[in-house]
Amino acid sequence: MKITNVRVTHVNVPLDAPFWWTAGLYGGASKSIIEVETDEGVVGLGEAPWWHFGEVIEAEIAPALIGADPLDIAECEARCVPPWQITANTGENAASVAFGAVELALWDIRGKVFGMPLYKLLGGAVRKDIPFSEYFAFRPTQDGAGGEMTPEAIVDYCLRMREQHGSTIFEGKLIMGDPELEIRTVRMLREALGEKAQIKLDSNMQWSLTTARWVLREIEPFNIRNYEDPVATFEEIAALRQHSRIPFSTHVPDLRRAVALGTPDYFVCNFAALGGLSKTLKFIAACEAMGKGFWCYSNDLGIMTSAYLHVVAATPWITEASQSLFRWQIGDVIKDGPFRQTGNTVRVPEGNGLGVELDPTAMTRWAGHFAEHGPMGHFSDPINPGRYRRLPLS
Fold it and tell me: What does R_g of the chain's alpha carbons equal in angstroms?
């Protein structure tokens, strides 16, 4: 079997309403969908975490893979990714992330060739119902969706998710630059949801160390399950540990520093950003050896989400709910997508490989959105259009 073509399609999938985070209003995802074609008619699917890595795939990765054996992942990587000494000296890791998106498609091919779901290739399922959190944030109204711009509205939204979908795991961003607003919202959430619900927070490095000490002191009585990136550095998180028992997580996958400093406690990562599924499995194993937890990123489309489902199904160490924006995604590129949880969980797909198929109509729609509007920016500041939001470190 040989690789004959690597097709890259840029897509936008908007959210039903944008939400506030540190850089402004986030309105949706711009991704690159990868199709690795073979001379035996087997096609593997991959997903790049950001659209511009698709351009790297088109320019560098795809030409290098033509004629390669898709089942020989090590050989494929050697064709595409420089030795680690190169990336360490140059700081250029785009090839690693881009290959990580393609490598997902190679695993999909492997499962299809061997006639089994990915989780069986990884050793079998220790669980098949995979937990994900509901997400909340301050969201302006857009086309009848959103409108959660007060603590009361966020509480009402979470109560509605519990009533409609059986959700009891909630994670959210309360990123308006106002610590008192965050404290008040958390207090109201705990009072409304009761003691058994999980509440997780994500600050995207919003606070100064001084303000973070104050915020964590005030919210600690409300049994916060986890607080992600409350401050900008691991050293500052280590300083916070002296004042708070709340567990911390981060998107920054620096295990050595986390072990040396004793914190953060968890890593929250996208598989392609770690260099692919193979490297992710090694990273998770190292986390287990060092006593650090792991769960999966949010705002991915159905291809990457399927990979999350399979890996968590096959990995006993991953016990916490992963992030999700499923409820806000108005579409996907896979048939029957997007995934959405019921009773906090999504069932792992049972089809061969990743167990998902592209929806041609959806691909045409969302590729057309990208072609017409360009990529969706990670920011939109109504006060300063075209600029990233600048939150003061309160």
Answer: 21
Query: In CATH, what class is 3-115?
Result: alpha beta
For the 120-347 domain, the top CATH level (class) is alpha beta
Cβ atoms 317, 287 nearer than 8 A:
yes
- From CA 387, how far away is CA 394, in angstroms rounded? 20
Question: How large is the average pLDDT for residues 176-184?
Answer: 96
In the chain, where the domains are located: 3-115, 120-347
Separation of CA 324 from chain center? 7
pLDDT at 378 over 70: no
Spatial CB neighbours of 217, under 8 Å, sequence gap ≥ 6: 243, 244
Calpha distance 294→322 (Å, rounded): 9
pLDDT at 303 > cutoff 70: yes
On whether the pTM is more than 0.90, the answer is yes
b/e 1-31 (16+ beta carbons within 10 angstroms → b): eebeebebbbbbbbbbbbbbbbbbbbbbbbb
220 touches 190 (CB < 8 A): no
